[in-house]
Design a protein that fits this description.
The chain is 58% helix and 7% strand. With 473 residues, it is α/β, with parallel strands linked by helices. It folds into 3 domains: 7-178, HAD superfamily/HAD-like (Rossmann fold), CATH 3.40.50; 183-339, UbiA prenyltransferase (Tetracycline Repressor, domain 2, Orthogonal Bundle); 341-473. It is found in: Membrane.
């Protein structure tokens, strides 16, 4: 009885729905951004060398990496049928061996070793020397695998749209094609967090607060600022997801995000993050210098949050609240409107409350004794987080009440007393948000929840009606 032809399986993009080199690089830069300065020197020494240097300085949590379950099920079935499986990857040997230990189906492991880059022609030559031409089958996913298929008996093509399989057919018999969903508009909309752009409507608040929404020049400037912040925010969301892959994959809901789940390639996320930032900067250059400085400060602060500040208790929620308030300040600079101290104080407290409720809902998902990955909070902190959040929300209403008593309000409204109706309405909304959070019915970002919640829309309409009754001058 003849021995079955061995099946050689690639790792990145084939068995895994991600690229381990990119994963290791992102983890290295997150832990020590100054390593970026060393990259050119490492690259001069060759691709195999840079792979080894990056792998030796990081430790990937291979258990968290997204696996292509269809491919895994297929090779496990082949193994049970008596077929010999080999993991043959261009990644560094350290990562490949760790993956082989995590998925113990492979009898042999071959990978880049610091001297030899086991990819493309290098992989093809190694397998031909090991098994002879046509003496193995190979599962791969990219154009770089074409030289390997030219030496193989059969090809298994993974994660492609059709072109690669047709090219592989000209080199050897294609045994199986593993289809996967293509990256479409819905995937990108989710990755860019388009629904979060609603937060940038805060840039119009100074314009509305000053009752100058009829000034088209200022309205146009605010609109430009809005688009700049939307692109910048999406760039930062991508950056945040890239640097937070490991902790997101252990989160009950964040693990389904496009980058964490492997539905969107890491390289695409990196390129999109850079392009969006460039476009947002170009728009910012069209606006006043003060806006540009505030915009730069926003990007710096939100980047620091993504890399480090989000891991520090209390400082993380203070940063989130500050980022909301910065939007208001930036909107004022864009429209050349001075933002009042009262507006800044109100926004700081109201958004601090919403930042706390976001953390509270995340803590609600943890089991007793667990620590939130990528954060410093424990399950036991829930009640304290709740107390601080509710207090912050009520302080925001107190600021509004004190503002209504100021003489300057009579200069802006004909019937300022009507504004008092806004206080109980806001108290109701804040109390309801926290009550829903305690009931476990708030499973999303509170701002996103409010956009989908009918009662929140009703509260918004009532507040607009109160402002209309007060009759702005």
């Amino acid at each position: 009885m003849s021995t079955p032809i061995p099946l050689c399986v690639d790792l990145d993009g084939t068995l895994l729905r991600t690229d381990t080199m990119s994963e290791s690089l992102l983890k290295l830069l997150k832990e020590n951004p100054l390593r970026l300065l060393q990259m050119p020197l490492w690259l001069v020494q060759g691709r195999a060398s840079i792979k080894q240097k990056i792998a030796s300085r990081t430790r990937l949590d291979v258990a968290s990496l997204p696996i292509n379950e269809e491919v895994l099920a297929y090779i496990e079935k082949e193994r049970q049928a008596g077929r010999k499986l080999l993991l043959v990857s261009g990644t560094d040997i350290k990562v490949a061996r760790a993956m082989a230990e995590h998925i113990p189906v492979f009898e042999e492991v071959y990978a880049s070793d610091g001297t030899r880059n086991l990819s493309g022609h290098g992989k093809a030559d190694m397998l031909r020397e090991r098994f002879g031409k046509g003496g193995f089958d190979y599962a791969g996913n990219a154009r770089v695998d074409l030289p390997v298929w030219a030496q193989a008996r059969r090809a298994l093509v993974v994660n492609e749209g059709g072109k690669l399989a047709r090219k592989a057919e000209t080199l050897c018999e294609v045994e199986k094609v593993f289809d996967s969903p293509q990256v479409g508009l819905r995937t990108w909309t989710e990755a860019l967090r388009v629904h979060q752009w609603a937060k940038n409507l805060l840039l119009f608040v100074p314009l509305l607060g000053a009752h100058r929404w009829h000034n088209y020049a200022e309205l146009g400037a605010s609109a430009l600022a809005f688009f700049a912040f939307c692109m910048c925010a999406s760039s930062v969301y991508l950056l945040n997801d890239l640097f937070d892959l490991e902790s997101d994959r252990y989160h009950p809901t964040k693990r389904r995000r496009p980058l964490a789940s492997g539905r969107l390639p890491l390289s695409s996320g990196m390129i999109a993050a850079a392009l969006l930032l460039i476009f947002s900067i170009l728009i910012a250059l069209l606006l006043p210098v003060e806006f540009g400085i505030t915009f730069a400060g926003y990007y710096l602060l939100t980047s620091l949050y993504s890399v480090r500040l989000k891991q520090i208790e209390i400082l993380d929620v203070l940063t989130l609240a500050a980022l909301y308030s910065v939007r208001v300040v930036a909107g004022g600079y864009a429209a050349r409107i001075m933002v009042s101290d009262w507006l800044l104080a109100f926004s700081l407290f109201i958004f601090l409350s919403l930042a706390f409720v976001k953390r509270f809902t995340e803590l609600q998902l943890l089991k007793s004794g667990e620590i939130m990955r990528g954060r410093g909070y424990r399950v036991a902190d829930r009640e304290l987080v709740s107390t601080m959040g509710v207090a912050s929300g009520y302080f925001a209403v107190l600021v509004l009440a004190l503002y209504i008593t100021q003489p300057l309000v009579t200069q802006l409204y004909r019937h300022p007393a009507a504004l008092w109706f806004a206080c109980p309405v806001l108290l109701y909304w804040i109390s309801r948000i926290w009550l829903l959070a305690h009931h476990g019915q708030l499973h999303d970002d509170p701002i996103v929840f409010a956009l989908k919640d009918k009662q929140s829309w009703l509260v918004c309409l009532i507040l607009l009606a109160v402002g209309a009754i007060a009759l702005p001058r």
